[in-house]
């Protein structure tokens, strides 16, 4: 098992080696494929995961989502950090 990752506003999240976000045409839904498991992200998680490109930090992701959905940045930031921390704890994202 890898080293624990702590997600913060300055973290730059990405999908680790062996984890892929892809659209499954047969199921007509987005999937996160990780070793020995498959996750189906909800629409909000999907929007966050699409932005985890290893270039944008969590703050920039929250800024983009706040602008896109016309929502309070601080609320979005807290939700994004919480979600990414949960995914990092399950080795689905890293930073």
Characterise the protein shown here.
- By secondary structure, the protein is α+β, with helices and mostly antiparallel strands.
- It has a 3-stranded antiparallel sheet with strand order 1-2-3, with helices on one face.
- The longest helix has 17 residues.
- The relative contact order is 0.26.
What distinguishing features does this structure have?
alpha+beta; three-stranded antiparallel β-sheet; 39% helix; 95 residues; globular
Over the alpha carbons, how many angstroms does the gyration radius reach? 13 Å
What is the quaternary state of this protein? single chain
Number of E-state strands: 3
- Count of DSSP helices? 3
Strand portion:
5-15%
Structural class assignment: alpha+beta
Report the principal-axis shape. globular
Question: pLDDT under 50 segments (min length 5)?
Answer: none
Write the layout of secondary structure elements.
Layout lengths: L19 E5 L4 E6 L2 E3 L3 H8 L7 H12 L3 H17 L6
Antiparallel strand pairs: 1-2, 2-3
Helix pairs in contact: 2-3
